Amino acid sequence: MFWKQLWLVIHHTFTQRLKSVGYWSLVLMPALSVLAVAAVFFILNMGNQQKTPTMTIVNQPALSHYLKEQKQLDLHIKSSDDLTATKKSLHQEKIAAYLTTNKGRYQLIKGAKTEDLDDQHLRTLLQDYTFLQRATALHLSPQQVTHLTEPVTIDTQVLNNQGQAKKDNQSANYALTSVLAIVIFFFLTYYVGLIANEIANEKSSRIMEILLAASSPAVQFFGKLGGIGLLALLHASIYLILGSIAFMCFPNNEFLIRAKNQFSNLDPTFLIFTLLMVLITIFLYMVLTAIVAAMVNDLSQVQQAVTPVTTLALVSYALTFMVNGQAHNGLITVLSFLPFESQSLMPARLALNYASPLQAWLSLAIAVITLVLLAYYGLRLYTRNVLTYQEGNLSKAAFATFLNLFKKN
User: Is the CB of residue 295 less than 8 Å from the CB of residue 397?
Assistant: First the structure.
């Protein structure tokens, strides 16, 4: 009977919120915002598209030939022997600029209405060309030139706590942690309020009394947590699907290519640990919110009740971006082991090799034990308060309730 009633509450909570406009507004708003920004940038780029500028090389056919072969230079290259005609073409805006040489020095002349040229690439190519010219004058062989220009290769190795080399994926791991810190805070902020409103609405309208007459507090407590949890999982799954579709539809997008290259070096063990930590922490906050929400009398007290919970999440969110360079910070080290704060602090410390894998899994074990204990004792608090209407300050009543938590009924 318990499991049947539990599933009914989970299903009711899930479907009721799934049909609401507010839920889908939250889910689709970030995706629609990204699409809107992308559309604006696309329209602006379409409007700003101009022909590739033309640059004339005066009295330097060899240099002109060399620059024409360089595909990375976003310029049309022309060669001319007539400086007067070239100046006239620039004045008539037929060309964007021209390049001359005098005693080994280059002079680039641009037109008044010329858009920014690819000066950096041009400067690099001119340096390369000058180097080749000087190498030829010194009668250096092609092999010697290649040897001189060969770049230095640096092989990087990252050692674990046992002194063994492992893959250098520190930047990818930390990048994932930074992204997850934002996502976790976003999810917690919304779903903490959603659970609080769900319980407070039923309590303030006296529906809770009818529900508890037909079932048990445990059914209502875990049923609402399960229903809201399924909504959060669906929310995350939709974003993963949309992200996968974006990668398939826009394989040549520069931003998506950079993101793919960045996260391709992720350590699988780190990824599994981080996802488990995030999942456990989300349920921790949901249980804590359900406990706090059971103490409110009506919907007007919901904001007062959830503010301490969201503030708790804000601490971890803010400190995550300060972990880099704080290898021996005592506060961050301690908080990375504490539930409600370790969800992004410990993954960040692990990504930067400030914490060992053993310490990371220890923090996860502490979070799991805390979740079990909080669910057990939280159910007792929920049972005591869900049909009790406190008078006076909500914080004082909540503090008194927590003091009586371990007393016998």
Answer: yes
Close Cβ partners of 82 (under 8 Å, ≥ 6 residues apart): none
Residue 70 has pLDDT above 80, yes or no: no
Report how far residue 189's alpha carbon sits from residue 355's, in angstroms, rounded to the nearest whole number.
28
Are the beta carbons of 141 and 234 closer than 8 angstroms?
no
Domains in the chain, please, with CATH?
54-149 (3.40.190), 169-403 (no CATH)
| Strand-pair category, 54-58 with 105-110 | unpaired
Which of 33-47, 263-277, 388-402 is modeled with the greatest confidence?
263-277
CA torsion, points 295, 299, 303, 304, in degrees to nearest 10?
-40
CA atoms of 77 and 64, how far apart (whole Å): 7
In this structure, the strands spanning 97-102 and 54-58 are parallel
Cβ(91)–Cβ(113) under 8 Å? no
Measured CA to CA, the distance from residue 230 to residue 10 in angstroms comes to: 9
Which sign does the torsion angle of CA 382, 388, 392, 397 carry? negative
Q: What would the two tokens of residue 133 be?
A: 């010219």
Helix, strand or coil for residue 112? coil
The 10s digit of each residue's pLDDT in 178-195 is: 777 888 888 888 888 888
Taking phi over 0 as left and psi of -120 to 50 as alpha, with beta for the rest, 353 belongs to: left
Measured CA to CA in angstroms, residue 337 lies from 83, 184, 319, 368, 391 at distances of: 73, 17, 14, 12, 36
Smallest CA-to-CA distance from 77 within 87, 89, 92, 63 is with 63
Do the beta carbons of residue 280 and residue 175 sit within 8 Å?
A: no
* Distances in whole angstroms, Cα of residue 78 to Cα of each of 75, 92, 113, 118, 220: 10, 16, 19, 16, 78
**Cα–Cα distance, 288 to 307 (Å, whole number):** 12
* The pair of three-digit structure tokens given for residue 189, joined into one six-digit string: 């902020």
CA-CA distances (angstroms) from residue 383 to 114, 210, 380?
Answer: 74, 14, 5
Decide if 207 contacts 304 (C-beta within 8 A): no
Chain centroid to Cα 394, Å, comes to 36
- Encode pLDDT of 337-354 as tens digits: 999 888 888 888 888 888
Q: Which two tokens stand for residue 8?
A: 């009914």
CA dist., res. 345 & res. 338, Å (int): 10
